Amino acid sequence: LSILQLEGLPKITDAGLTRIITILPELDKLRLVECTGLTAQGLMQLAGLKKLTALNLSRTPAATDALIPVLCGLKKLKDLSVKDSGITEAGLNQFKKQRPDVLISK
Questions:
Q1: How many Å apart are CA 30 and CA 88, to the nearest integer?
Q2: pLDDT in tens, 55-99
Q3: pTM beyond 0.90
Q4: Which of 9, 12, 76, 99 has the smallest C-beta neighbourhood within 10 Å, fewest atoms?
Q5: What does the H/E/C string look like for the chain?
Q6: Over the range 17-29, which residues count as b (16 or more CB within 10 Å of their CB) and which as e?
Q7: How far apart are CA 100 and CA 106, in angstroms?
Q8: Alpha carbon distances (Å) from 92 to 29, 86, 95
Q9: What confidence tens digit (pLDDT) does each residue in 4-58 have?
Q10: Is the pLDDT of residue 1 over 90?
């Protein structure tokens, strides 16, 4: 499995994300859209997905500027969507400075 799409699932928690990352460390594309049960601390686990090329965190409020260092560390990331997330324009600017190669949808 290289693509996982989770959308509108408020019952997905940090523990569930931990399990997903443990079982599927080779994920290429991940959509965590409107996953309101996740916390900012839980999203830090995304650092374990070293092969991730596309990530969608739209409408996931726990995705905040605190996640920017983790996102910058995903070296294979090429496509990032953060529409209506908690990531601010300042956070996106910080990300763009470090990762100008990533296509950002907001």
A1: 21
A2: 999 999 999 999 999 999 999 999 999 999 999 999 999 999 999
A3: yes
A4: 76
A5: CCEEEEECCCCCCHHHHHHHHHHCCCCCEEEEECCCCCCHHHHHHHHHCCCCCEEECCCCCCCEHHHHHHHHHCCCCCEEECCCCECCHHHHHHHHHHCCCCEEEC
A6: beebbeeeeebee
A7: 15
A8: 20, 11, 5
A9: 999 999 899 999 999 999 999 999 999 999 999 999 999 999 999 999 999 999 9
A10: no
Q: Tokens 């400075």 appear where?
A: 97
CB 101, CB 80: distance < 8 Å: no
The residue type of 88 is T
Nearest CA-CA partner of 25 in 10, 4, 7, 9 = 4
Neighbouring residues of 96: CB distance < 8 A, sequence distance ≥ 6: 102, 104
